[in-house]
Design brief:
The complex is a heterodimer of chains A (140) and B (142). Chain A has 140 residues and is mainly beta. Chain A has a single domain, classed as Immunoglobulin-like. Chain A is built from one helix and nine strands. Chain B has one domain: Immunoglobulin-like, CATH 2.60.40. Helices cover 12% and strands 34% of the residues of chain B. The termini of chain B are far apart. Classes of the chains: A mainly beta (140), B mainly beta (142). Chains A and B meet through strand 3 and strand 4 of A and strand 2 and strand 3 of B. Bound molecules: copper (II) ion (2 copies). One copper (II) ion binds next to strand 4 of chain B.
């Protein structure tokens, strides 16, 4: 009886942890990073290319449900969105639903932050969520 | 009707280039290239992550048919295969059918060539075919 109570409590604990992520599994060793620009990069161009680095996980277009795949989202000057909902779509949350692995970006002069976040076929982050470090760049 | 078929047949015969590609279209400006390694690179130990660059197209796992997408193939120490057939699968023709955009590669000491070739859901190159420059890398003996 006591063991049962404990296991129920444990299950509840685990369940609450699971709620802060989507339902699509991601490999625990998946590695997402911004290949370029580097953190702290100073950019003196009207537009620049951003490389999406992804290891141990594959890319699939939005709408395509394939295990251990997803599509890239670039967060520009924005915080991470909730991990258990569809990633918003705006100029601060750019979806690459065609399976793109790089893009060209044009930003006004000043400091900007960039971060990558994978989303599944429904644009919901994986479990565990796969995100890059947030980097800061300066556009001159 | 018959005449147009005849003309088409004659055209195909006259322009063999038309037949030498798959049926899946690639957009103008599509490009695959090596982000890393670079042509002429020396790679100590021979173990590295090859990073695949792709422009104007997207990645999709093998078997997924979506316009202007495909998956990467790394051709190691080999020439380009025929463009109107499935790319062979061997240690010299590696398919990344899970939608990878980078891959761990291990090469023995010596001089090696690497080339990327993009292909459709059926592993057949696009029309026009989308492939990178063939680059050469060196793995030192020690
Ligand atoms: Cu999305
Ligand atoms: Cu293939």
């Amino acid at each position: 009886m006591k063991t049962m109570k404990i296991s129920i409590a444990l299950a509840a604990l685990i369940a609450s942890g699971v709620a802060v992520a989507g339902d699509s599994p991601a490999p625990t060793n998946a590695y997402l990073y911004i290949g370029w620009p580097n953190d702290g990069e100073v950019i003196r161009a009207e537009s620049f290319r951003v490389w999406f680095g992804l290891r141990k996980m594959g890319v699939a277009p939005a709408g395509v449900e394939k295990s251990m795949t997803g599509h890239h989202h670039l967060l520009v000057d924005a915080p991470l969105p909730p991990m258990d909902e569809e990633i918003p779509a705006s100029k601060n949350y750019v979806h690459f639903g065609k399976g793109q692995t790089e893009t060209r970006l044009s930003l006004p002069p000043g400091k900007h932050t960039l971060q990558l976040l994978m989303g599944d076929y429904n644009h919901v982050p994986h479990n565990p969520p796969v995100m890059s470090r947030k980097i800061t760049i300066t556009v001159k | 009707m018959k005449r147009s078929i005849l003309v088409a047949t004659m055209l195909t015969a006259l322009i063999p280039g038309l037949a030498v590609a798959g049926d899946t279209p690639a957009p103008a400006g599509a490009k695959v290239y090596f982000i890393w390694p670079k042509d002429g690179q020396t790679i100590k130990g021979g173990k590295f992550w090859a990073r695949f660059g792709l422009r104007e197209m997207g990645v999709a796992p093998a078997g997924v048919e979506k316009r202007f997408t495909g998956h990467h193939h790394l051709i190691i120490d080999a020439d380009l295969p025929p463009f109107d057939e499935e790319i062979p699968a061997s240690k010299n023709h590696v398919h990344y059918g899970k939608g990878y955009s980078e891959a761990r590669v291990e090469l023995p000491p010596g001089k090696h060539t690497l080339q990327l070739l993009f292909a459709d859901h059926n592993h057949i190159p696009h029309n026009p075919p989308v492939y990178s420059e063939k680059i050469t890398v060196y793995v030192p003996a020690d």
